[in-house]
Amino acid sequence: MHKSGPLTRTLPLTLNFILALCSLVPQAVAERGTNGREREEQIMRNAKAAEVLRYMNREADPCNNFYDFACGNWASHQPTLLEGDAPISVQSQLAQRVRKDVQMLLDGGARSKGRTNLDERKVKEFYKSCIVVERSSSLQQAFLMNFIKEYEGLPLLAGTNWNMNYDWVQVVARLRLNYGFDYLIGMEVVTTEHSLPGKAVIQLTEPATSLLPRHLCSGGAILDTRLVEKHTAQLQIEIALDLQSWFGLKEEETERVAGDIIRFELELCQYMRENESLPPTENDEPEPSVYEGRDLARLSKDFGNIINFRRYLETSLNSTVANSEIAMKSPAYFKNLARIARLNPRPTLTNYIMYRALAEINFPRNETSTPRAGYCAQLTMRFFPKVVGEIYKNRYQRSEIRTDAEQLFDKIKGTLSESLNVNDLSENAQRTLRNKLLAFERLLFPIYKGVNLRDLPLEHTNFWHKQDIAMKFKGYKERQRFYGGDPDLDESLVEAFDIRMQLLDNGIMTGWGLLQPPFYDYSYAKSLKYALLGPLIARELAAALIPDELETELTRDDSIMEIFDNVTECYRTQYSNYLYNIPNVFYNASKLRELMTDSAGLNIAFKAYLGWLADMVPTGNDRQTLLRETLPGVDFTNTQLFFIVFAQSRCHAKYVKEMPPTFLPLDTHTEELFNVNGVLGNNVEFAREFGCVLGTDMNPDDKCTMF
Ligand SMILES: *[C@@H]1O[C@H](CO)[C@@H](O)[C@H](O)[C@H]1NC(C)=O
Ligand SMILES: *[C@@H]1O[C@H](CO)[C@@H](O)[C@H](O)[C@H]1NC(C)=O
Ligand SMILES: *[C@@H]1O[C@H](CO)[C@@H](O)[C@H](O)[C@H]1NC(C)=O
Ligand SMILES: *[C@@H]1O[C@H](CO)[C@@H](O)[C@H](O)[C@H]1NC(C)=O
Ligand SMILES: *[C@@H]1O[C@H](CO)[C@@H](O)[C@H](O)[C@H]1NC(C)=O
């Protein structure tokens, strides 16, 4: 679907030439800056220039490994990673920055101007009590024991009233009702603006969370026994240590229980995330079955009468579901769940469920690797997203940034719309896609109408009780969707402190947390803004145009489906070859979709940047603007800089035991590297900008492109 217009071929060459000359005289520009703003901008430009150069490895060949060229020195400027440490990425740095900023905001006193903000004060108090509470004390012990008793006990602990009539379905339903926990049974309530109260569609799904990391908890991953065994052994030790520290148990008392918990989870994982890790099954997928709310006995019967679905749903939603529709989304998972629930002894089910709940209540075991203040800031964001979001927004929103980002959005959307004008798409398909794009009117920012925590009794009580109230409050908020269809549902998806964008029905919502350096600064040149924010916006819009499984106008058009299927296969082959040197062994459909939208995002953002350049008149004021498109002392053209900065927004570092031997080149082919090299390698203009000959690693002849 790629089409290089005449514009993209000729224009950049001329402009690059002008700009290349201009980058040699940055001093002259600096001296002209007289007012504070320009001086500030100059300081920022110098700092950014130094940063770009610092992370690059100029020895590397950009046509062989662009990641190394742009990010080769990035890791050496990060803290040294030890075994077990989480990898560092630009995203994780940004998340950390936001966490620090939120910590600072929560540490400050409540605003005293105007009406005293009760909500703000309550939330700050919650944060403070989280900071100072002892991680284990008699208060905490008492709280835990009460909690365990309330949910039918734990066989490990005498005196918690556990007995053989333990009803696991009822316990997980009550944990969902009170706290929104999704153990064993996943559930989503799908509302539309037309849903009547209590009439939403309820989907039964795999649970979204697991003890094992996501990529290890899947049907495909479980087959890789060596990888999984290494992780499970570690996790088993950690579970045993947790149980020892919470209840003062001895090592030998906890070993077997920890082993049971892990084994049980592995059995669950065996049937999870199949579409992300196993080859698609040849026989046609059965349509997801839909059951009437009054007919749930049939659903239970279809799954061996092990799970009383009516009771589960009515308990967890605290309401009748007689008038709802229930869609069974993951039949293979539920068949398996029914089987292992029947085969495993009750104590194993109990231990699994209760361990997961207790792990959410207690502090992380190792407070050196998870410092308390950061953890508490995160809890506060999780439980009171609206209050913290509003505080964050009041501190960081700026109308000029908003306007700037909105303009970028318009340019990107316009460019995407134009690039749909390709021959292999039918007229009808082009029209359908363009209309679809029109619905996404603008860039949206979280708005806050104030919540009311007045009745939330957070004061005068210890942290454990406060946290319990907060967790229940969050569970209650989530349940609101079922009753009444929350009109503000869309607006609750992204908070001001979030560092991501999300596609909604009428636009893309972005958190203010994303509009911070290194991703964004008001004084960045357009080359930087288009390279950093541009692909994020374009990627969301492109994703909206890729047909999904649901039957829509898009999936009915054969020309769209054919292109989409071809492009998917192209990426599958490319990525399988890259990772494993065998075509067709990579199955994660979500990842393939991500590669496709990532690649579209980069292509569109670069085209949009060229479009912006073309609108500039290289005289007068525009000339001044164009002069700032490069960075002082960085001898790359503005368009080369675009790709370098794009790559640098994806640098990462992770712990490696030893350098992989160089005679096994495939060992250095990682997902993170492909996210830079693979995406750039599929971009035609990239190769031209860096003069990469066709057939070099960064300019393969089997490019995959969509838009
Ligand atoms: C599949 O890819 C998605 C997107 O990259 C990722 O979040 C998910 O963990 C992957 N699934 C598995 C089972 O690895
Ligand atoms: C469940 O509903 C009843 C009656 O409507 C109500 O009194 C009770 O507080 C609700 N329970 C929860 C946990 O929301
Ligand atoms: C906690 O984490 C730190 C840093 O990762 C590590 O050095 C330390 O050994 C850990 N302590 C325990 C008790 O696991
Ligand atoms: C899709 O792939 C098939 C088989 O490789 C090819 O014949 C067809 O022309 C491709 N269609 C498009 C629109 O690229
Ligand atoms: C994989 O299956 C899950 C659960 O059924 C579904 O939510 C998800 O959208 C599917 N992913 C893809 C890429 O089809």
Radius of gyration: 27 Å
Percent range for helical residues? 40-55%
Oligomer: single chain
CATH homologous superfamily grouping of the domain at 136-362 = Neutral endopeptidase , domain2
Bound molecules: 2-acetamido-2-deoxy-beta-D-glucopyranose
Q: What is the β-strand count?
A: 9
Number of helical elements: 29
- Secondary-structure-based class equals mainly alpha
CATH architectural category of the domain at 136-362: Orthogonal Bundle
Domain Peptidase M13 C-terminal: 506-705
Main location: membrane
Domain Peptidase M13 N-terminal: 62-441
Cofactor: Zn(2+)
Topology:
Blueprint lengths: L5 H17 L3 H7 L3 H20 L10 H6 L16 E2 H18 L10 H15 L5 H13 L17 H12 L6 E5 L10 E5 L13 H4 L2 H23 L3 H19 L4 H4 L11 E4 L3 H7 L6 H9 L7 E4 L2 H13 L2 H16 L10 H12 L1 H12 L2 H20 L8 H12 L3 E3 L18 H17 L21 E4 L2 E4 L15 H20 L7 H4 L1 H23 L8 H26 L5 H8 L10 H11 L3 E2 L17 H11 L2 H6 L18
Parallel strand pairs: 3-5, 6-8
Antiparallel strand pairs: 1-9, 2-3, 4-5, 7-8
How would you summarize this macromolecular structure in one to three sentences?
It contains 29 helices and 9 strands. It has helices at residues 6-22, 26-32, 36-55, 66-71, 90-107, 118-132, 138-150, 168-179, 219-222, 225-247, 251-269, 274-277, 296-302, 309-317, 331-343, 346-361, 372-383, 385-396, 399-418, 427-438, 463-479, 526-545, 553-556, 558-580, 589-614, 620-627, 638-648, 671-681, 684-689, and strands spanning 88-89, 186-190, 201-205, 289-292, 325-328, 442-444, 501-504, 507-510, 652-653.
